[in-house]
Amino acid sequence: DRQTLDEQFGSGATLSVNKAGVVWPWIGDVCRIAMRAFGVFANVNLYVTKQGVDVAVPPHNDRQDVFILQLSGSKQWTLYPPAVP
User: Fold this and answer.
1) Residue 85: pLDDT over 70
2) Which of 3, 12, 20, 79 could form a disulfide with 44 if both were Cys (CB 3.0 to 4.6 A apart)?
3) CA–CA dist 36, 1 (Å, integer)
């Protein structure tokens, strides 16, 4: 509910939706278009963080290539070399 979301955001929480194309069909459509265009698997994870929060997700390495699209605000991104598997 809205009150819970407001409380969580107020405490610095991040809303994360993995596989957002399952939740919103139009995002799934975008993934399928990208898969056809590039010939690779595509997925969308969505993160919403309140302005002023420095870290939404702790530093980590992803096993796959990642394309980041930031739609609003500003952020200092730090990129690290891949971890040795």
Assistant:
1) no
2) 20
3) 37
